[in-house]
Design brief:
single chain; 106 residues; mainly beta; Jelly Rolls; two-stranded parallel sheet; 1 helix
C-alpha cells in the first residue's frame, strides 16, 4: 500500500497524566496524539471530534474511525499496537488508507 507522512505534528502520550487527559477539555488542537501499547480509547470530556487510527506494531493502518464524537468509545481492534488520535479534518482518506504505513512515529 505504500507509506505516508502526515503533515501534522505528532506528540507521544507517555506519562500517566498525558495518556489519561489526552485532548480532554481542550477547545481545539493542531497536533495528533500517539498512544503506544493502547488498544481502545474514549472521548469523554473532549470538545471536538477526532479521527481514531489503529496501527499495528509496524505502524500500518488497520482501521480508521472518522469523526468520533465526544463521549464515545473506540473499542479494541485485533492486532492493534497503538492508536493515533487526530483532530477531525486535519488529514484526508488517502493518507489514512488501510494498509498504509505511517512514517516518523518515533
Amino acid at each position: 500500500m505504500g507509506n505516508t507522512k502526515l503533515g501534522i505534528p505528532i506528540i507521544k502520550a507517555e506519562t500517566f497524566w498525558e495518556r489519561f487527559s489526552g485532548f480532554m477539555f481542550k477547545k481545539s488542537a493542531n497536533y495528533a496524539l500517539l498512544f503506544n501499547n493502547c488498544k481502545s480509547i474514549h472521548t469523554c470530556f473532549m470538545r471536538f471530534d477526532v479521527d481514531v487510527v489503529y496501527l499495528d506494531k509496524s505502524n500500518r493502518v488497520l482501521k480508521v474511525i472518522k469523526s468520533l464524537q465526544p463521549f464515545k468509545v473506540a473499542f479494541l481492534v485485533k492486532n492493534s499496537a497503538s492508536i493515533l488520535e487526530i483532530p477531525s479534518n486535519m488529514t484526508n482518506a488517502e493518507e489514512l488508507a488501510i494498509g498504509k504505513k505511517i512514517d516518523c512515529l518515533f
